[in-house]
Amino acid sequence: MEILVFRTGVKDPVHIGEVAPHLNSLSGIYKWNFDLDDTDNILRVESAGISPRQIESVLEGMNYYCEELPD
User: Fold this and answer.
1) Which CATH number covers residue 10?
2) d(CA 71, CA 60)
3) What is the pLDDT of residues 31-48, one digit of tens each?
């Protein structure tokens, strides 16, 4: 299992509610959460067998900025 960390444009709980069904539908994601108290609105994803680009694509497809942060 790996932990992927992203900087996002998700800024409030309403936005989280919009992306939640899409993140939940991706196989390979075990757990995810947003830290909206962080200035980068961090998304942390515990996963196996999913690429960071897949997660970025989901959020970008919903018009939210999403960029994987380096280790």
Assistant:
1) 3.30.70.100
2) 21
3) 999 999 999 999 999 999
